[in-house]
Amino acid sequence: MNRQFDVLIVGAGVTGLTVAALLAQCRHSDRLRLTVVDAAPRPTHSIKDDAALRVSAIATGSAELLDSIGAWSHISDTRVSAYECMRVWDESGTADSSATLRFDAAEFGVPQLGFIVENGLIQHAILKVLDTLDVTLVFNTKVDALDADLVIGADGARSFVRESVGIETRDFPYGQTAFVTHLRPENSHCNTAWQRFLRDGPIGMLPLHDGRISVVWSTHEALAERAMSASDEDLGEILSDVTDYVLGDLEVSGPRGAFPLCARHARQYVMPGIALIGDAAHAVHPLAGQGANLGLQDAATLAGVIDHALGNGENPGDRPVLRRYERARKGENATMLHFMTGLNKLFTTDSVLVRELRATGMRLFNYSGPIRDHAVKVAIGVGR
Hints:
Largest sheet: 8 strands, mixed
CATH class of the domain at 5-84 and 114-172 and 264-349: Alpha Beta
Radius of gyration: 21 Å
Strand order of the largest sheet: 6-5-11-12-13-10-14-17
Shape: globular
CATH architecture of the domain at 5-84 and 114-172 and 264-349: 3-Layer(bba) Sandwich
Strand content: 25-35%
Order of helices and strands: EHEEHHEEEEHEEHEEEEHHEEEEHHHH
CATH topology of the domain at 5-84 and 114-172 and 264-349: FAD/NAD(P)-binding domain
Structural class: alpha/beta
Number of strands: 17
Number of helices: 11
Helix content: 25-40%
């Protein structure tokens, strides 16, 4: 008789729930006893509620992964905003200059580049799937012992699992704070994701389903504090100005939030009986919206490694098995982390020479053919 293995997934965010669903539906799921534990209440979502402040840019490839576990249909039937275009420009130019980076879904043979989705909706949709599977879900409960054949740490940037087993991180503080809110623009967002690079950090405008935009402004702490305390009228004027009025006047139409930004990378992803995924393993700058997608790729890779190991009669908690996951994901995540960090530094310099080189580089990238094509397909998850 084949042995069963206890798998404890700590954290019921998007990444943790996804790996639970993948494992519960894998070929050798009958060999696994799956438990998901989270200290927070069970996430809920209602179409009657306003769009939540926390949203993610979900790449087309990530949407396909969510579809494979049966969650995407509920998401798409509820509310989602597909974006078909991206425009990226520097404050030294304009949104329609030759140096502006332009990406359109039609160029790459896809209906859209990605989707803007509320995190709570994604969690709710995956939980609906898990309710039909053989998975134990435990909420409002803190984990105090890592007692399982395999513990998957999906518990975020301040991971209890990571700290409990003594895995260290390398931190790269940005000296920036991310300010987030929803706004109603004077002009249509045209199903386009907009991003302007400023001297203090980038500001992104993500299209929402109801015509509003979700703004993520990475700036220095004093400006973020000013934005948090400003009146709605003043905040609308501030954000209209820093976005160069590309969507006209902006009107505040949602709550506000702010959080400090710091890139973080675990020195190791695995130990015997331990695997870290998502923000527990790595955190990147939000300027390219890749955080959720990297976590979903972690979940898919780890689930695949575990399923394959079970098929070969291996213990999924053994370090040689888990190292296959680490080797597949750590380098790729590190590349993205350092690329985002470097890009942020490149665009926040005051050097006139660097600004000119930057503009030239953006123009060249627009006409770089295969390089541009490959970079965008990787970013949207269809070129792997």
